[in-house]
Each structure stands twice: as C-alpha cells, then as structure tokens.
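Aim 2 progress. For Quercetin dioxygenase-like cupin family protein, the working sequence is reproduced below.
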Amino acid sequence: MAPAPDQQAMHDHDQMATVDPAALPGKPTRSLESKLILRAPDGQGRETIVNRTIRAPGTRAPIHFHDAGGTTCVLEGEMTLYLKGQAPQRAVAGQCYYMPSGMPMSGVNSGSVNAVLLDIFTVPVGTPVWRVTEEGMDAIQQQFPAPQK
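Predicted structure tokens for this construct:
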C-alpha cells in the first residue's frame, strides 16, 4: 500500500539534500505578521490560500519546502529566495517568485525596510502550505495555521 500523500511528501523530502542554514544570510524568525486573507475551496478537493505576510529586514523564513509549490508577490520592500542548487532570486515591490514543490528553500528580507508579501498557494484541502525542516525551528511551522479539514 502506498503512503498517504502527506507521508509521501515527507519521505520524498527526506531523500533530498537540504539548504545549509549557515550559508544563508539573515536570522531565521517568525514573520512579524501572517494574516490569512483568502481561503477558497474549489469544490474538487483543492483550495487556494492567500496570506499577507510582513517580514522584518535582515530576517528569513526557516528552511522549509512546499508540497504543492506556491508564489510570493512582494508588495513592499524586497525579498531574496534561496533554493537548493540555484542562484538566489531577488524580487522587489511589484515582482513575484515561484517556489517549486519539494525544494528546500528560504526567503530572506534582503532590503532595509519591512517586506510586505502575498503568499499564494493552491493545495489539497487540509494540507499545510509549508513544512519547516530547519533544526530548532519547529515552532515557526505554526506561522501559517493548519488548514481545517
């Protein structure tokens, strides 16, 4: 019997190399704010979740991955996305970046002001939008509340 999708994602991720936290700029912290602004089920077992997130300068999300991928759009400030094996991707106000599924990553506020973001995900209903994998950062997993089933 195949593992449940949730277990399969964790298994797949465990087989991947991770991003080295020592190589990342910024301090891993919870965002200043993460507010759910939209949860829209599509009636076919998936839902779109949009969070408005504010991240302080010089801080970063803990290393994590997304089961289903997602997009971050920068409304104010700037962010830099660090993905395993890829060059950093800088995005300033008015730009977005895509976060592929299953890839270890961290987003860093690389600017000098608070970064205001829209984090957009489409996931199976009841699936968390992210999974924190950085050691010692388990409490930050709660930044995006677990979806209600």
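The domain at 5-143 is CATH 2.60.120.10 (Jelly Rolls). This observation will guide construct design in the next reporting period.
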